[in-house]
């Protein structure tokens, strides 16, 4: 028995939508407890029947470098848990692999164009939800603009607060690189939301996506010329007519950039407060790691300080201290293989841009268990695999 493409399409639309609604749990919306079961966890179970109702080409074979990475970090963690405390984050890694497999599986019976269309429709709905809920937070936004400090107290649909919401908005903007007008509209919207949220990383990621779109094969020569001309005009206008120091005082998001690395930069100061003990903690593990989720435990054990953060805000440092040199090496193989495929596609696949920006943004946030990004990776690898098979049959 075979499922129709419409069934796969509907599942992908809803699964992607719920993965973005990260604060939606079984007990209610806007619940941010890390231990709570998310709605997308339950919904993902509807994928299991698809394993028995095989698509046309059967169950796909997972790329070896993906399989080796996940098997490697799970085995490493189980061994390390004999010495260090067990951390339930290992379950998040398992779910990330599950999300990858879902993406890799459903991209088989669905064409590349259908995948992009499905993701775009869901992403548009998410943009509407995010912008719409800002109107309910106007009093808080006004208060924050008058006396800014950190980020405004706004409910988010993503776990991790306003910074992560701005991050995922920026990443999802890449889905529209083949929709010129819509892309630039959403680019402006995401940039505006990042400024309201005072999210530096949101601004950076939005411009990174725009930069990758600029060099993408989907961007015409005429469009590049127009972008360069507008950019030069904007730069000239800033230099001649705008007092940047005065503007920074009025726009808090810009002020946060001017504070980068200074003593008033609370975000970076908090990271440095953890990282100063990183080398000692890593050496104490003999470069073998402490197991999934035990990165902060390792730092706290050495420093004797309790930190509010639940990760090191650098994915590569996180992987090294949790899974040791072997785990990091396995992940870098994943990064290398995907990056090569993304560059070979000339970044014409919007999902390739999302993944590439994620790899860069991982230098300042993320901890490797983002099911949403692993869904993207699964979709991307299968789409590119389908292209190779199609080219071989011609």
Automatic annotation (TrEMBL):
It is a multi-pass membrane protein. It is found in: Membrane. Coiled coil: none annotated. GO terms for cellular component: membrane. It comes from the Bacteria. The chain crosses the membrane at residues 37-53, 65-84, 90-107, 119-138, 182-212, 224-242, 315-339, 351-377. Residues 188-332 form the O-antigen ligase-related domain. Keywords: Ligase, Membrane, Transmembrane, Transmembrane helix. It holds the Pfam family Wzy_C. GO terms for molecular function: ligase activity. This is O-antigen ligase. The lineage of its organism: Bacteria, Pseudomonadati, Bacteroidota, Cytophagia, Cytophagales.
